[in-house]
Amino acid sequence: MLSAPAPGLLPLLLGLLVGGRGAPAQYSSDLCSWKGSGLTHESHKKDVEQVYLRCSEGSIEWMYPTGALIVNLRPNTLSASYKHLTVCIKPLKDSTGANIYLEKTGELKLLVRDGDRSPNKVYCFGYDQGGLFVEATPQQDISRKITGFQYELINKGTASDLHTVSDPCRPCSDTEVLLAVCTSDFVVRGSIQDVRNEAEQQESIIDISASKLYRQKSKVFQPSEENGSWQGYIKTLLECGVRPGNGDFLFTGRMQFGEARLGCAPRFKDFQRIYREAKDNGLNPCEIGPD
């Protein structure tokens, strides 16, 4: 559903797209993140500023927002297929002063409304669905306003990414489990020690004791001096209803905005069955010891 644009917004956008009207393009010094100020064109409050970033992750921080920004995101590898990318953005804490739209060929879809205080909410969309159009909302005093968000470009060609982004509470299929083992940022065998529910953040924090560490790209799990295990925690949505339980699981997932997010997590005995069947049939996409 396309939301109604703010008064004067659509002509402003179309004017830029058709006639090239707007402020000069702004390039990030590191091509990953951008910081700017609306005060640079205070006398032209209807200016649209172009921002170009060439990175798989970074951030936007717009102080004193006036006018609008068009944020152009590109992956940092030339071989990446755009149609297989998902864009995720996470507004910074207390971000205010602008609406964030998804824009494609002049059509606008409201993504994040100014003042939305949904804690830690992540907004994801297909790269081919459009770009980001950030429009400042009318303010009596812009001096206290900063609009900002983190972004990530995710390859949605793997089942683990599709699962994490689209429906994190859904049980994984056998094929998704096997692909998650091969492509996840972390893969561990372990048990749930505790689950802490954060109602305000709408998240559950799962404390895990891991007996086997197959892979991790970040230091999610740290060695314990007590019993030789690995300790760490993973986050997931509160609505998934995760509870402490007996037995071992195979925990997989990915890092999202610096946090470990739960992907596929079958019981370990189920993973052993899935892996053995795939190996016997020559269908396992990668080798990993199931024991």
TrEMBL record:
Biological processes, Gene Ontology terms: brown fat cell differentiation; energy homeostasis; negative regulation of inflammatory response; positive regulation of brown fat cell differentiation; response to cold; response to muscle activity
InterPro entries: Meteorin-like
Keywords tagged on the record: Disulfide bond, Hormone, Secreted, Signal
Cytoplasm keyword on record: no
Subcellular location, principal: secreted
Protein's gene: METRNL
GO molecular function: hormone activity
A single GO cellular-component term on record: extracellular space
Subcellular location: Secreted
Organism: Pelodiscus sinensis
Family (UniProt): Belongs to the meteorin family.
Protein name: Meteorin-like protein
Signal peptide (from-to): 1-22
